[in-house]
C-alpha cells in the first residue's frame, strides 16, 4: 500500500522545535565545496563527500521530473537500488496530482526497503532530461518543498513526516542533467533552509 502526502500547503512558518539533520551529498569536488560554503553556520546541515546512498538516513531526496520517471542521473541510481520506488512515485503522482507533480511541490513514498524507508520526490524539471536555464530557481523551489514537507506533511497513519524522518540525505538539485551550477544550487538550498527554519519576526 502506498503511503504518501503532498506538501502543497503553506502551513505556519514559525520556528519549529527542531530541524532535520540534512546531509548534503556530492560525488564531485565542485559541488562538495559549494555545499561546504553554505553548511557553515547552519546547525543541522552537514556535508558528505560521496554517494547519497552512503548515508544512514530515513529519507533520500529525488530531484525528479514532474512526471515521476526515474530513468536518468541519481533517479536511475535510486530505481536500481529500490526496485519498487519508481512505481510508487508514478502511482502517487497520478493519484494525487493527475499525473504531473509541479516543480515547487513534493511527495514522500516508501522505498520498499527498511533503510532508507522513504524517498521524497521533489521535481527540479517538468520533463525528463530538461536543461534548466541559468537563471532558474528550481533548486530553491524543490528544496523548499522538501523542507516544508518534512515540517508540515503527514503520513497516511497520521504521523508528521518529521516524526518518522530525522535524517534526510540530499544530492545536488538540478546539477546533473539539469546543468545547474553547483554554487547556484547550494545558494538556493541554503535560502530554502533559511526561509523554512528561520523564525518570523515578532510583532
Automatic annotation (TrEMBL):
The segment(s) forming the Macro domain are: 32-203
Q: Which PROSITE patterns match?
A: MACRO
Return the SMART domains for the record.
A1pp
**InterPro entries registered for this protein in UniProt:** Macro_dom, Macro_dom-like
Q: What name goes with this protein? A: Phage tail protein
Q: Which organism is it from?
A: Saccharothrix syringae
